[in-house]
Amino acid sequence: MRSIILLLAVFVFAISCSPRIKSSIEKQEFKQLSTHTPVITLRVSVAVPEGSVFVGETYVGDTGFTTKCTYTEVLEILETEARKAGANIVSIQKIKKPSFASTCYRIGANLYRNTNIQLVNGYIEKQQNRYTSRLPENTDYAVVHFYRPHNPKGGLIGFKIRMDDETVIGRVRDGEKFSYKIKDFGLHKFWARTENITQVYENIERGKEYFFRCGINFGAVVGRANIEQVSPEIGIEESGLMGHQ
């Protein structure tokens, strides 16, 4: 009996930590797509490709205990929900950034299906090309971008970003970001120290941009710093939501 109660408690806890998903599907005739099917994600105000059929809408929110709800994680959930509904286009309608009311990104989107594979592949290729380096051609440097989306959890704690040894290249407080030019190409270590030491390695190449999302996790006293490398697509979008500094 105790084992059953324990399993139920674990199940309830796991459910409460998952994002709240609310979907309304109008077109039921489309079959579920495989997990390998590409899905186009269109940002707010971007037009949906011609010939797309409206399938329904979905919203990813916060239960109050949700933990896995970063911008990247919520986009992945939206794409998963789209495939379940037989849709291959996610058109974002609204975005709520983390605040004191919620530490999660909350995103609502419309779902569409477009059967013109050539058109869909063209959009995907266009999206990929959109996120090539924005640096001038033949530039003699690379740029690393560090950003820390607003999150009340650990919001009062800032930490320095170091490169290789003890060289400080910047500092990230809650809701801040900075960029740093590098002309010394090759493998570099980027790290931070609070209660812990967190570090990432990257082979820096001329003319490229690199994005790193920063944050603070709960610790015993001060909090544990976190640095995570993200794709240019996610980095540009997510840091852009933070506005200009």
Give a description of the structure:
This protein has 245 residues and is an alpha+beta fold. It folds into two domains: 17-130, no CATH class; 142-240, Immunoglobulin-like (Sandwich), CATH 2.60.40. The protein contains four helices and 13 strands. It has a five-stranded mixed β-sheet. Strand 10 (186-193) and strand 11 (197-204) form a beta hairpin. The longest helix is centred in the N-terminal third of the chain and has 16 residues, at 2-17. The termini are far apart. Mean pLDDT is 85; it is low at 5-16. It comes from Marinirhabdus gelatinilytica. This is Lipoprotein.
- The number of domains is 2
Low-confidence stretches: 5-16
Number of strands: 13
Give the helix proportion (percent range): 10-25%
What is the helix tally? 4
Q: What summary fits the major beta sheet?
A: 5 strands, mixed
Shape: globular
User: Strand order, biggest sheet?
Assistant: 1-3-5-4-2
Distance between the termini: 57 Å
SS-derived structural category:
alpha+beta
Task: Please specify the SSE layout and strand pairing.
Layout: H1 2-17, E1 20-25, E2 40-42, E3 53-61, H2 71-84, E4 89-96, E5 106-113, H3 117-130, E6 142-147, E7 159-163, E8 167-172, E9 177-182, E10 186-193, E11 197-204, E12 209-217, E13 224-230, H4 232-240
Parallel strand pairs: 2-4, 6-12
Antiparallel strand pairs: 1-3, 3-5, 4-5, 6-9, 7-8, 7-10, 10-11, 12-13
